[in-house]
Design goal:
4-stranded parallel beta sheet; 12-stranded mixed beta sheet; globular; DHBP synthase; Rossmann fold; binds threonylcarbamoyladenylate; 30% helix; single chain; 10 helices; alpha/beta; 342 residues; binds magnesium ion
Length: 342
């Protein structure tokens, strides 16, 4: 059930549902989340059940304020405190050492925990109200079935799950790709998942290097010096993630043009194309969508474009590889994963 314009009363009801062990889907500035009380292992198990997600894949716990970090994490290093002070609320998740006996199910029984304070006003208000009811954090993965495209609109969440799930509509998510994840559980910060906040921005802010250890990616250009043996397990970082139903291929602009010129679609085959370079006269077997040349706009449209291609029942999706500059890193990461799925 989608609540179109959540009122104060709706938020209080949603907070009570969370307090009582039910799931609530809510908007964040990145993507919609499927939330449960992070300290209630039965409620958290429901998230894994409805998503079809393996229970050792840790969830991000969303907090109302920086003070709540103390409930979940210990030995928080200074660089992590700096990141929180500068970028929270916002699209940044920090992996920290977990206190014993908190959020065990949410953290996938790992010794670390992912924490984030989102900036979407509805998310913050919901978190404040749940905290007033004694809930310190809301565990919330993206509100999609395991391995599928993350939802950036309330309607996308509705497409994924049963009708009785409460979904708070907060409009279309401003950023559109998931938060940047920095591992802060060891002596040095390490990027685990790129997002809208770029490594360069984060490095400038903390005046220190951030190493890169993207799971399942090609060898990093900046691997951490002595840390690689004890990297936290981010088992959710499977290469084949963020997949629409149709097969996705990534091409350079030139390859894509040649492909369109030379390919002979089979029968009624329909091919979705997402590219910055327009195709003035594509035959009707091609469904063309213009890719924004601005990275922030492109991130905002990425997942809904993939979903729209699925709705149009395309057989394949061909995407022009975006630029390689830092602000495109999160987008390139999601596209590579989408293209690795089949
Ligand atoms: O923007 C976001 O981060 C969204 C919104 C809803 O906040 N959430 C999200 O959650 O993307 P999810 O579950 O789809 O992705 C969580 C990622 C996974 O790749 C998981 O492996 C990693 O965070 N993660 C969570 N806790 C971790 C931990 N303790 N150690 C390592 N990785 C962790
Ligand atoms: Mg996800």
């Amino acid at each position: 059930m989608i609540i179109e314009h959540p009122t104060d009363r709706d938020l209080l009801e949603a907070a009570k549902l969370l307090k009582n062990g039910f799931l609530v889907a809510f908007p964040t500035e990145t993507v919609y989340g499927l939330g449960a009380d992070a300290d209630n292992s039965i409620a958290v198990k429901r998230i894994f059940d409805v998503k079809g997600r393996p229970t050792d894949h840790p969830l991000i716990v969303h907090v109302a304020d920086i003070e709540s970090v103390d409930h979940f994490a210990k030995n928080v290093p200074d660089f992590a405190k700096k990141l929180m002070a500068l970028f929270w609320p916002g699209p940044l998740t920090l992996i920290l050492q977990k206190r014993e006996n908190v959020a065990n199910a949410a953290s996938g029984h790992h010794s670390t925990i992912g924490l984030r304070m989102p900036s979407h006003p509805l998310a913050l208000e919901l978190l404040k109200r749940t905290k007033q009811l004694g809930v310190f954090g809301v565990a919330a993965p993206s509100a999609n079935r395991f391995g599928r495209v993350s939802p950036t609109q309330a309607g996308h969440v509705g497409e994924e799950f049963d009708h009785d799930l409460l979904i708070l509509n907060g409009g279309s998510c401003q950023i559109g790709i998931e938060s940047t994840i920095i591992d802060c559980s060891r002596d040095l910060p390490v990027l685990l998942r790129p997002g809208q906040l770029s490594v360069q921005e984060l490095e400038l802010a903390i005046v220190a290097p951030i190493y890169q250890q993207l799971i399942d990616h090609e060898p990093s250009e900046n691997p951490p010096p002595t840390l690689s043996s004890s990297a936290p397990k981010a088992s959710g970082r499977l290469l084949a993630h963020y997949a629409p139903k149709a097969k996705v291929s990534l091409w350079s602009a030139q390859e894509l043009r040649q492909q369109v010129d030379n390919y002979r679609p089979k029968g009624h085959e329909l091919i979705g194309i997402w590219s910055q370079n327009p195709f003035p006269s594509t035959p009707e077997q091609y469904l063309f969508e213009a890719m924004p040349s601005n990275a922030a706009l492109c991130a905002h449209e990425l997942f809904s474009t993939l979903r729209n291609f699925d709705k149009a029942q395309v057989d394949q999706i061909w995407i022009e590889h975006p630029p390689l500059s830092p602000e495109w890193q999160g987008i390139c990461d999601r596209l590579k994963r989408a293209a690795s799925a089949q």
